[in-house]
Design goal:
mainly alpha
Length: 140
C-alpha cells in the first residue's frame, strides 16, 4: 500500500511539473491552441516517470556517494524516458537542439519536484518529529 501511495504522490508532483513546463513552453512559442492529445501525453509521461521514480525512491542510499550516483542515474533515466516520449509525441526533433531542450526541461521539472518534495514532505516530517519530541519530553 505504501508503494501505491508513493507512486500517486510522485505522479502528482511530476505531472504538475510537466504541466508547468509545457505551459511555459507554449507561452514562449506563442502557441494559441493546445494539440488535442497533449494532455494525454502529459499524463502518460507523468505515469512512466513516476513509475521509475517510485522504484528509485523506494531504496535508501547507504552514503553520500551512493545518493549522488542514484540521483544522477535517476535524472538520466528521466531524460531518456522524456526524450523517447517527446519524440513519440512530436514534442521534439531528435537533433542536438531538441535533445538539449528536453534535458533542460527535465532539469526544470526535477528541480520543481525535488523542491516540492522538500517543502511539503520533509518539512511535514520535521514538524511531526518536533511534536513527538515535545509530547514524549513532557511525559518523561
Amino acid at each position: 500500500m505504501n508503494v501505491l501511495k508513493n507512486f500517486i504522490k510522485w505522479f502528482l508532483y511530476i505531472t504538475t511539473g510537466i504541466l508547468i513546463v509545457c505551459a511555459v513552453v507554449f507561452m514562449l512559442y506563442d502557441m494559441e491552441a493546445l494539440p488535442k492529445n497533449t494532455l494525454w501525453h502529459i499524463l502518460l509521461s507523468g505515469f512512466l516517470t513516476a513509475l521509475v521514480t517510485t522504484v528509485f525512491a523506494s531504496k535508501e542510499s547507504a552514503g553520500k556517494a551512493e545518493a549522488i550516483i542514484r540521483y544522477l542515474l535517476h535524472y538520466a533515466s528521466m531524460c531518456v524516458i522524456m526524450i523517447v516520449c517527446g519524440h513519440w509525441f512530436g514534442w521534439l526533433n531528435l537533433d542536438f537542439g531538441g535533445i538539449m531542450m528536453m534535458v533542460v526541461s527535465v532539469l526544470v521539472v526535477y528541480v520543481l519536484v525535488l523542491g516540492s518534495h522538500y517543502i511539503i514532505d520533509v518539512k511535514q516530517a520535521d514538524e511531526i518529529n518536533r511534536k513527538l519530541k515535545e509530547k514524549y519530553k513532557n511525559e518523561a
